[in-house]
Design goal:
This protein is α/β, with parallel strands linked by helices and 282 residues long. It has one domain: Rossmann fold, CATH 3.40.50.1820. It is 36% helix and 17% strand. It has ten helices and ten strands. The strands form two sheets. An eight-stranded mixed sheet has the order 1-2-4-3-5-6-9-10, with helices on both faces. It has a two-stranded antiparallel sheet with strand order 7-8. Helix 8 links the parallel strand 9 and strand 10. Helix 1 packs across helix 10, helix 2 packs across helix 3 and helix 4 packs across helix 7. The longest helix is centred in the N-terminal third of the chain and has 15 residues. The chain is globular, with a radius of gyration of 18 Å. The chain starts with a strand and ends with a helix.
């Protein structure tokens, strides 16, 4: 089987996005990670999609992974525009329009991609897409206080590596290794998040200010919701999304990890393949 190939794509904005991909004759999949994550967490699922004959592209969003870190543009609309431009450059249009899967914040980004750019044949929202932070926090300051990234002052890269590799025991080993791409070693042997604190804050502010409910009626392609929960303990926003998106279905992952694509890549890939087939995009 072909291996994932790394490359960089320069967008018209000048920003270079890093991608990992495999060519294939069948409908492309575009795979989008979540906040402060990276494309490599999609590797195991990507290879299973590729084994079924699909072209697969996993992308590092701006400021993440191996992509450029421009000084601004860390809002959902700009990140969705990045993906639309990437699709144009890679020829993922028309009959080759992709199934786009986004995890967590990435789900909110791919929702905006479908609603505002109509650049997908279908979208899958992997424990995200319905994230509505204003409904959980009265002020952005409360949101930031709860969801700001950890401070790694005084922590070494070797310490973080040991923690990551021993954490998430339900994940396959390759997924735990891929999570190391979320961090960068500093010259003094310390560590920092790959996504800067200021850019992390900008993304959270965009999520808090935005409202995915406004986008649901604008989506004109099939949508698959994949919550890391069962129907009895899911975020109430999942039910609202199911009711409001014109053509939506759900696959429940009761007791699943928020990073479903890293924890359960085989099941996620199988559900994505079934979704593509049902959407007429096989």
């Amino acid at each position: 089987m072909s291996q994932l190939t790394d490359t960089h794509i320069r967008l018209p904005s000048g920003v270079r996005l890093a991608t990992r991909g495999v060519d294939g004759p069948r409908r492309p999949f575009l795979l989008v990670h979540g906040l402060a994550s990276n494309a490599r967490l999609w590797d195991a699922a990507a290879m299973q999609l590729a084994a079924a004959g699909h072209q697969v592209i996993a992308v590092d969003q701006r400021g993440h992974g191996r992509s450029d870190e421009p000084p601004d543009g860390y809002d959902n609309d700009t990140c969705a525009a990045d993906l639309a431009a990437l699709c144009e450059i890679l020829g993922l249009t028309g009959d080759r329009a992709p199934i786009v899967a986004g995890q967590s914040w990435g789900g909110n980004v791919v929702l905006a991609l479908a609603a505002k750019h109509h650049a997908a044949a279908g979208i899958a929202m992997v424990d995200g897409g319905w994230l509505r932070l204003r409904g959980k926090f009265d002020t952005f300051e409360q949101c930031w206080d709860r969801l700001s990234p950890p401070d790694f002052t005084g922590v070494s890269m070797s310490d973080v590596t040991a923690r990551v590799l021993s954490h998430h025991r339900s994940w396959p080993p390759e997924s735990r290794t891929s999570a190391l791409g979320n961090f960068v070693e500093t010259p003094d042997g310390g560590v920092r998040n790959r996504l800067s604190r200021d850019h992390h804050k900008s993304i959270l502010r965009s999520m808090w200010e935005g409202d995915p409910r406004e986008l649901y009626p604008l989506v004109d392609v099939p949508v698959l919701l994949m919550p890391a929960a069962g129907p009895d303990d899911a975020d109430p926003e999942v039910a609202i999304a199911l009711q409001s998106i014109p053509n939506a279905d759900v696959r429940w992952y009761a007791g699943g990890d928020h990073d479903l694509h890293a924890q359960q890549p085989s099941r996620v890939a199988a559900d994505l393949l079934e979704f593509a087939s049902a959407a007429g995009s096989s």
